[in-house]
Amino acid sequence: TAVKRVLLLLCYFVALLQLRKMWSSKYLRSPLSRSLFSNVRHQGDEEHDKSQWYACDMELLPMCLQPSFVQSHLDVGTRAFLRQCSEKSSWLFVQIYYSLVTSVFGLFMSKTSINGLLGRGSMFVFSEEQFLRLLRVGPDWRAARVLDLGAGDGEVTKIVSPHFEEVYVTEVSPTMKWQLKKKQYRVLGIDEWQDTGFYYNMISCLNLLDRCDRPLTLLKDIRNALEPSEGRLILAVVLPFQPYVENGGRWERPSEYLEVTGETWEEQVASFSNDVFSKMGFAIESFTRLPYLCEGDLYNDHYVLDDVVFVLKLV
């Protein structure tokens, strides 16, 4: 029995190695592979022009939005995250262990919760430099309270938190809550943060709007919880906008619908401004285009999606 287990484990390792070899080959560029990954793109080639992660065609933006665009670039913080991803992906036996645990625990746990348990799968939305440039403030800027909705493992929160006296977070996943408490953030319930009796100077809602069942209700709650005169919402959304929510292992359409139109990144940004924010009582103060990066696995160093990051004020 012990010999059979060892042989099965060896077969599993060999299969994973073959999959990694295949996934890294030219066949990844086939139409089948692209359809499997949808708009997730692995950036493994050094020749890839990462400047496209930050590109915006100003001519496709309405004149009223052009002054609000902040040009970002591949900075030191982003390079450091990519280098860390590359190093972790090269830890072969660690990645095999992660893959094995994910295969087993995936039968009864969400991938987010598994990542929280393993302490892996960290996301990167912006560096501190990009965050401050977007707010148009200096490194010494400080405010009272920030709330990070859907904070995950808190790695993105860690970039924002030094600029606030009080840091609050929310999260659904039990293992991610555990990670957040380890970092000593104040974890609020998903139905608690709206009724604390105080306002937040900033609320961050990063790549949550398209995975939320009631995005309109969420925006209303955020509006009511922000400090009326100086409160800001920093909102990141993956484009093209494709909302869906996980329900018992199935992916379903949200119960509330955001009317976002347009084919290009610029057209959808304009639609968010006209069709969503203006109707909800928000105005764009600044926005930028950034890559939404995620730590990779046995097959790829990292994964990337197209993000728009808005700074919104109340009107």
Overall description:
With 315 residues, the protein is an alpha/beta fold. The chain has helices at 2-23, 31-37, 76-89, 92-105, 111-118, 128-135, 157-160, 174-182, 215-225, 265-280, and strands spanning 123-124, 143-149, 164-170, 186-188, 202-206, 232-238, 245-247, 250-252, 282-295, 302-314. It has an 8-stranded mixed sheet with strand order 1-9-10-6-5-2-3-4, sandwiched between helices. A hairpin with a 2-residue loop joins strand 7 (245-247) and strand 8. It is globular.
Can you summarize this structure?
This protein is an alpha/beta fold.
**How many helices does DSSP assign?**
10
Q: Kindly name the structural category.
A: alpha/beta
- Average residue pLDDT: 82
User: End-to-end distance, in Å?
Assistant: 69 Å
What fraction strand? 15-25%
Identify the strand order in the major beta sheet.
Answer: 1-9-10-6-5-2-3-4
